[in-house]
Write the structure tokens for this entry.
Amino acid sequence: MDQITITQLKESHQLLAEFQYAVQPVVHGYANRTLYINLDSNTIAIKPVDQKMKETFTGGKGFCLWLLWNAINGETKWDDPQNELVVAGGPIGGITAYPGSGKCTVVTLSPLTKSIIDSNAGAYFGPYLKFSGFDALEVQGKAQEDVVIFIDGDNGTVSIEAAPLDEVNTHLLSKQLTDLYGGETDKGKRAISVMSAGRAAEHVPMCGVNVSYWDSRRQEIRIKQAARGGAGTVLRDKRIKAIVVKYSETGGDSNGAANLELIRAAGKRINKEIADFDASQNDMRHLGTPYLVEIMNKFDILPVQNFRYGSDPDAHKINGEVWKSMFDFRGPDGCWYGCSLQCAHAVPHYHLQSGPYQGEVVFVDGPEYESLGALGSNLGIFDAPAMLELCFYCDTYGIDTISVGNSMAFAYECYEKGILDKQKTGGLELTWGNAEAAYELLHQMARGEGFGVTVGQGVRAMKAIFAERYGADPQQLQDMGMEIKGLEISEYISRESLAQQGGYSMASKGPQHDEAWLIFMDMVHKQLPTFEAKAEALHYFPVWRTWFSLHGLCKLPWNDIIPVSNRTAKEPAKVPEHVENYCWLYEGISGKKTTPEDLMAQSEKVYNFQRLFNLRMGFGTRQHDYPPYRLIGPATIEEYENRTERYDTQLREVIGVNPEGKSVEEKISLVRKHREHQYEQLMDAVYLRRGWTNDGVPTQATLKRLGIDFPEAVALSAAHGG
Amino acid sequence: MLAGKNILSLEMDSGQSVLDAFYRVLEMVPALKPHWLDHEGQPQVFVHVFLNGDDASTLAQGMQTPLHDGDCLDFIPPVAGG
């Protein structure tokens, strides 16, 4: 396939449908239209965006949820043609004066959780989609053959093209399509963003989408991932090889801002702060997120061996300093124009050691902290080249590093415990630190064969399979299977942070840190000493963090850089100066006077609507908000004995039981009873604060207060005791 | 690692505090001063100091907490997670 020329590729792209439209300028952040494509009938159409939709759902993830809500019903399954892949940027997204403004959110019915998933990515797709004329894209139906969808915002054309010769794996396909639609010049290639998955997305449910941009300084295709929950699997289930958007005329005012000076004022303030303090704080420009490895290890939060332990003496082999010496610093690393945080690092000239591209020299985006936790410490693999090998193949095959890392770790522990053996794994020795076995599992997922396909089904599926086929104890598997709602847990040990346990377990889509990351506030800085304080944090922060995905913004410039004004801030964890910046951004875009409460109101509507959507799909109640016990406390003897002093002290000082003379099993049981009770109390407090029933259902009064009390929403709430 | 190393041993007099140790580190590694101190020579708001794993700002005496033999101090940036 690597001998296919661009000319041959072009000739093979038979036109299946074409739609022409007039490209209109974006006004105050909105294109005021969405694009609808149905691959069953090759229909392409435009839908209007009205004022009510904007006022209720704002944009971005809010629009995605609303469009999907109208497209499916409570009986729809992820692989029904009716399911949609919905993509949107947001009204602020696409500005170039403020860092982190190029995000897009992808929403679909998840093959992993069977409910609603949202995941976001950087790169150029979100802004280009809007500048091409659409606030969102929804794709429904399934093509009869492999296709590429091409949205040409330069010429006002949308086409569905047969794509029989195109590659599937991202690193090749993105290049082919960037060359095909962008031509040979840097300007042409920079106008292209490709959304794709990879071969594994044809076989396992844990695949996300990659979103590309052309890095002209390095002459490389760069990719960012909306990795979580299976959007890539849905993409390939619809037989889409890629969705390509082209827009050449991005400028400082492409967003049609009402008050560009206000946006520039916010940008000037944050950019100076980043220039002055990033090197003194997290040094995102040189370390990116891998700086977290060392810190998480220090605080016993880094997942090691399937979340059993929180630190390892070898963690330094994959920490930030290791990557700093390998990253490619040929110019800024922003994944959207104007991003001064520049955290999107990559390693050039990596020689692949395995798989179909063995021996080739490749450019590897990342690695990010989450990938290092999932594929490194959690598997006991502390080896930088192995991290690059695993990250490269995860990306090009479309596999979510968090889900696959946790799934492999679960399988490795099952192997250690004798639930699995070489016969069951097809000869693979799943021992801690065995990188070659991890490589092979990935390649099997991409080939659709072997034990890798079982691992690729995810932790929840494996629990059922191992209990049914191999007679494993379901309770043991439940305790050590690190997933909630069917989604694998992102890479922080939360055993000593009750607030983070709630953050993970009560998150709408499943345990992803982007909704609630409270572990340092709670466990390290001890800012949340009471149930009420934790509940308030579990109201405010998930709602606030949701706001970024409504607008096409990255969260990192909010609190990965801290202003001097935080010294006197009443609530420094909220970073008030930066919240003020976001008020200026929204006011600058919309022309409406904006307060922090206005921003929260936008977000709270969507947050509660997503909970209702889960309810509609058969989830969204208290029973779905429970974590595996290992997230809460020591599930096994080895975990208890790894931190005996900590747990014995808790027994003595908090629970009021003398641990002397008790067996470890007895002590585990006592700690468990206490911690599970604490978690129940937390749920009660959080639901109350959020305006939900004790079963986790938004009440009718809450729906009315938020203005989302339309008949079907009210009926859903009422039917579930709301 | 800005200082070229990430572990330092400090010899402090009896009764000296966390804040004293903070400034002692800066005497030993002057390259850290522009990062840890503001224009008035005060510790930057974003430098978090931990004494034996506890955030010094949460201790009863805060940065004035006296040190003892074998105490471990960590200096951590403002960690925000993903």
